[in-house]
Amino acid sequence: MGLHRLPAADPLRSRGRRHAEADAPTRNPFQRDRDRVIHSTAFRRLVYKTQVFLNHEGDLFRTRLTHSLEVAQLGRSIARALGLNEDLVEAVSLAHDLGHTPFGHAGQDALAECMAQASEQLPASAVLASDIMGWGFEHNLQSLRVVDALEERYPAFDGLNLCFETREGILKHCSRAAAERIEALEPGGVAQRFLAGGSPTLEAQLCNLADQIAYNAHDVDDGVRSGLLTLEQVAQVDVVGHFQREALRQHPRLVGRRLLFETIRLMLSEQVYDVIRTTAQRVHEAGVGSVDEVRAAGALVGFSEPMREQTKALKRFLFQALYRHPQVMDTTDRARRVVCELFTAYTADPQAMPPEYAQRPDLARATADYIAGMTDRFAIREHQRLTGERVFA
Ligand code: MG
User: Fold this and answer.
1) Whole-structure pTM value
2) Cα 141 to averaged position of ligand 1 atoms, centre (Å)
3) How far is ligand 1, taken at its centre, from the CA of residue 358, in Å?
4) From ligand 1's centre to the CA of 262, what distance in Å?
5) Separation of 162 CA from ligand 1 center, angstroms?
6) Mean of pLDDT over the chain
7) Are 160 and 33 in contact (CB under 8 A)?
8) Is 29's pLDDT higher than 90?
């Protein structure tokens, strides 16, 4: 496409790590971050965590792990075409969902409710004054806590001690209250842009968009695979219908699964090319030539206006037809019950948790951390052990 070179994040000019470390002999700091994420415990747990469908509902549905790999693939592919730093994109993509609870968004919402309720029942000390989530829970902030504090792998520090740019990409959204708490702990750090305005690197912006491209596409696939959506139903969404007609124009006898795959493949390709074209043009028009100028500018990575509108319509469809499908909602209700009853059981009897959680002074946050780290199946087993009840058949 004859693109200008865009201002990519440079690993040799990173804003650095929170704890000073010697450079690695063969890998740059962003490559090292990616490797640290892959070797983390939280990363391995993603394979047993829900994306939309519970892990045990079927072997072929996306899990948090395969979702994260698809985000990394899309992100790298776009990054390479734009001349952005692929290693940073890969590190952020693979880490972006490390803070997800079991059972996906249902688990997160349940934990947030539990924390809010606990604020009225537990002593104030059950959450530290420096806690970045206060009496709340949010998966994106938890992803940051996983890489900053919760992983226990290195002799000299807690967490993975990732570069500023990787951490900044992980913290893709943040409430003002949370940003103020993070800023107090780390002045001028990863939360500053949520208070002072400004943007993260193009690589971080790209990961955020690649996440949306990935889940819109794979949720159509998983939705049809599950039988909760039909091919005819998804084809009524403009963008899907458009690429289905294109698939049939190229291959008139295509039906069933292959038609769906070809439709999604064409849609993904066009979305990727759209982002590449639009982003290159916007960066060029904005006259942005350095990472500092990227940080001072508004969002630059994105879809063209027509593609943005079409993608929004697809997202709305998925929300109504899939995420709010009675069968998904039934699972959501059960998941909520498992998480809330686990939270109640552990806060009533902290010794039911492993000692490293039971012994923490901040009981509410320790409990939330313990539950958030669980895989779907571990949470279900643990709930049954503590309550004697089976919420999932
Ligand atoms: Mg994601």
Assistant:
1) 0.96
2) 13
3) 30
4) 23
5) 19
6) 95
7) yes
8) yes
Centre of ligand 1 from the C-alpha of residue 378, in Å? 21
**pLDDT at site 3:** 57
Residue 98 corresponds to which tokens in the numbers above? 């490390």
Closest CA to 261 of 283, 274, 244, 249: 244
96 Cα: distance to centroid of ligand 1 (angstroms): 6
Q: Percentage of the chain surpassing pLDDT 70?
A: 98
Separation of CA 61 and ligand 1 centre (Å): 15
**Which whole number is the average pLDDT over 35-47?**
96
Cα(190) to ligand 1 centroid in Å equals 19
| Ligand 1: centre distance to CA 117 (Å) | 27
pLDDT tens digits, 326-371: 999 999 999 999 999 999 999 999 999 999 999 999 999 999 999 9
Alpha helices in 130-251 (DSSP H): 139-145, 164-170, 176-185, 192-196, 202-226, 231-235, 238-250
User: In angstroms, how far apart are the furthest CA atoms of the chain?
Assistant: 67
Report the SS3 class of residue 20: coil
| 100 C-alpha to ligand 1 centroid (Å) | 9
pLDDT of residue 56: 67
H/E stretch holding 313: helix 305-318
| Burial environment of residue 176 by CB neighbours within 10 A (0 to 12, 13 to 18, 19 or more) | exposed
Say how far residue 237 (Cα) sits from the centre of its chain: 25
Q: What is the pLDDT of residues 130-160, one digit of tens each?
A: 999 999 999 999 999 999 999 999 999 999 9
Containing H/E element for 384?
helix 376-387
Please provide the DSSP assignment of 89-129 as one string: HHHHHHHTTTTPPTTHHHHHHHHHHHHHHHHHHS-GGGS-T
Burial code of 374-392, b = ≥16 C-beta within 10 A, e = fewer?
bbbeebbebbeebeeeebb
Q: How far is the CA of 107 from the centre of ligand 1 (A)?
A: 15
